[in-house]
Amino acid sequence: MSVCFLYTPAKVNVFAMHFKYREWNPNIDKKSPNQSPFDTLMDLFEELLTIASGDVSQALRWMADIDDEYGITNQFDDFDLDDFVDELKERGYIEQDQEENMLVITRKAERSLRKHSLEEIFKHLDKGAAGRHKTDHTGEGLERQPETRQWQQGDDLTNIDSVGTMMNMFKHSSIDQMDLKERDIRVHNTDHHTSVATVLLIDLSHSMVLYGEDRITPAKKVAMALSELILNNYANDSLDIVAFGNEAWKVGIEDLPYLKVGPYHTNTQQALQMARHILHRRKYANKQIFMITDGKPSCIIENGRLYKNSVGLDRKIVNKVLDEAVKCRRDKIDITTFMIARDPYLQNFVRELTEANKGRAYFASLDNLGGYIFEDYIRNRKRRVK
After folding, report:
1. What superkingdom does the record give (predicted)?
2. How far apart are CA 66 and CA 134, in angstroms?
């Protein structure tokens, strides 16, 4: 059992998640009983390719090791890894880079990785508790709610509560004459889907792979899936991605598969500052920052030089981050922090950051990271119309 905490300045909600693990069975885990050998190997290849940060040769070496140990290709008739590589080339997923003399992925493969990540996250959402996750992809529009109110001038008549309206009319009507008055009319409240500008911050500091735990791969998957969701379902929304270590820098959607952790400290202040500046240029009423991190802020740029301190919570560094969080609040930019570690220092920092911005924070396991981010993103696209 893993536990996820949702922290807000007012209260803390606790959700318990239960997981069951079983030995992998290629016949059970296929997407369909008729899945081809290529599609079966493609699932594994895309998973390894994400972990390898887009390094085709490394992913294929890992596939060969796994095949040697588990005999994956033994279940196929006349189809081995060499055939798989040839088909990858024929279908346009990989190509030979003549200058570097190595295999590289194509734009088609990058799109496929984003789609794969999106499908994986929504597969987990589908398995969640009933009612926990909203997966509505209708884009702009109105969603009727069960609550009703009195009709007002300009309300959409398609949202009339016919039962409630008739009951009101019956109260003052007779059998011989029905007398419908304006005050009788009830309409359903609706959720209106609004456009949202989002900046996703991804921590690439060294701690994201510290102690043998791969935290960067789930973060990359979420970034790829979120970008695919927005590109295909919410065309009026915007998504910018910022990576941060010693400094912060913008990342293109096409660059996501290649992100790597470096020997970096954690410059949270500059990441938030860059996100705020990006959102200033976005002409949206709704603006938000999603930050995926596992570390406390440990550095800032001071007088053009890197000031760093990895021991405890350095108040000089923390205060700079909190100042940035307050600036975001003043600019009506919500910060939602997705913390994928539970060090007490981190919880203290997240609590201060959340209170300074009046935002939200999730303490989530790596397995649930995508689900919580997608749930929050889709919910934030809606505002209640009354």
Report:
1. Bacteria
2. 36
